[in-house]
Structure formats: C-alpha cells, structure tokens
Amino acid sequence: MSADPPQHAVEVRRSARRRRTVSAYREGDRTVVLIPARMSEAEERRWVGVMLDKLAAQESKRTLGDTELTERAARLSEQYLGARARPRSVRWVTNQNTRWGSCTPAEGSIRLSHRLQGMPEYVVDYVLLHELAHLLVPGHGPRFWELLEAYPRTERARGFLEGVVAAERLPRIPAAREE
Looking at the whole model, is its pTM more than 0.85? Predict the structure, then answer.
C-alpha cells in the first residue's frame, strides 16, 4: 500500500456493516481509510489512492503561512536532503506568474508562487523540495535531478503542474448567448 507523503502510514479498516461508502481521516501520524469488507484488493488500492488524494487536496486548501512553509521546508530537507539545505527564508509571493518557485542560493531565500495555494500537498512539497535542492546545486544538471529522485511523487507532481500549464493555454470558448 502506498502512503501520500511518506510521513503518513496508511491503515485500512474493513467493515461488514459498511456497504458502499469509503471514507478517510488523519489519526495522529497515520491515515485511516474505512472501506466495505467485501471490497477486492484492487478496489482497495484504488480507493486508498483516491482518498489520500482527497485528504491532501482538503489539507492544501488551508492556506499555509510563511512560518508553516519554513517548517515544511525544514522537514523536507531533513527527510530527503539529509538536512543539508537550510534556507534563511521561505515565503509566498504574488509576482511569479510564469514560475512555480524561485531560489536565490546566495541569500538562502526561497519564494513560492501564490498560484500553488490550493494545489495538492504533494505538489507544493515537490516545488519546495525543488527549490531546496537549488540551495545545494544551482542548475538543473544530473546532480540536481539525482537529489529529487528521493521524493517518491516527483513525476506525479511534475505531471500535475504540466497539466495546469496546459489547461491555462487552452482557448477560452465564450459562453453561448441565449437568443
């Protein structure tokens, strides 16, 4: 079974009384997913993924402040970069409309675009980890990408962001006028 961010273990509880519904909630450092007892293992895997994404989306809708972003950066650095990336500041900015984040290694500052607010937690974590990696490796060469390989949702987050960019490029079809 896969967990959303690695800090959350997943516990699946089956219930004979539960017929159709699936629900999930956080309980301390684990995620509990409640499913009907008759559900197959394949359905269980699918529903665990759906519920983890749903919880992550709900949690990311709560706007993180700069203090929480800084704490999150410290956790991600510790978990994936051996605590080597230590930013002096991490904050949201509203002047980045073509980038998801930026980093100034000389100053140790990381800025994340406000456009990330409301996106799934794993996407925000990926962008934050991407910028943390720039504190250690300035460019996008092989050493940089090796650092990001440790994050299990790198490809998924990149795909999500590519989808957002693609959706923004779609032509806007004007609403049909009623005659």
Answer: no
